Amino acid sequence: MSQYNPEPSDDPSAQPDVPTSTSGDTAHPDGDSQVTPQITTKQAQRIYAPARGMIISMAVLVLLTLPFFLLQPRPDGQTYRPDVDVAQEASYAADVAEFTPVAPELGDGYSPNYARWQGSSADDVDRWEAGWVTPSSRFVGLVQTDQANPTWLVEQVGQAPQTGTREAHGIDWDTYQAEDDDGKITRSWVGELDDSTVVVTGTASEEEISHVAGAVVDAQATEATQN
Question: What dihedral do alpha carbons 202, 206, 207, 211 form, nearest 10°?
């Protein structure tokens, strides 16, 4: 039996169909062509406009806020101290206190930063409080009450041990001192006035604590004379 082998034909119609591409498109085996998208200049401008607008807005915002940052005081600059009238606040507290709240005149270099009456507190001890920043940029405050008790006093001096007793400005003061892990020393003086107990405490120096204690005694003497 002879095997039939077809011969190549010269007839173009007999050749297999081959996909062709036109207009530069790439032909795919499934007959679809991949078309590269083209955008106009105006379309490109519309696409990039939002990003450009955002950059401009951020630049304007930075320019607007820059003066505020420049006007802020440096960390080593003068600390802001609110204008507090201790004498006026003490007069308000006198309307509700069962004792005479003292408003010591401390002189130049001492800046008051709070003065308030604390009533109906959690420890059931109504009290008058005031505080100052000292000339050495430290803190000193006073707490005055006619309801002092041992537990309350321990809290006011920060559980510091008693270091002794000091007679100053006509009053015997119990002195306390504590030092934290950073070496910061807190001093407290506790004295008995005519109608109340006063605690002078803070990170101020010994001389500044003594100065405030003396001013407290003078303030009480002045109030007693006026009344």
Answer: 50
pTM of this prediction?
0.64
Q: Which residues pair with 127 in a beta bridge?
A: 118
Tokens 């920060």 correspond to what residue?
158
Q: What is the pLDDT of residues 109-164, one digit of tens each?
A: 999 999 999 987 788 899 999 999 999 999 999 999 999 999 999 999 999 999 99
Q: CA angle, corner 213, sides to 209 and 214, nearest 5?
A: 120
d(CA 105, CA 218): 9
- Over the range 134-161, which residues count as b (16 or more CB within 10 Å of their CB) and which as e? bbeebbbbbbbbbebeeebbeebbeebe
Please report which helix (H) or strand (E) contains residue 219, including its range: helix 206-226
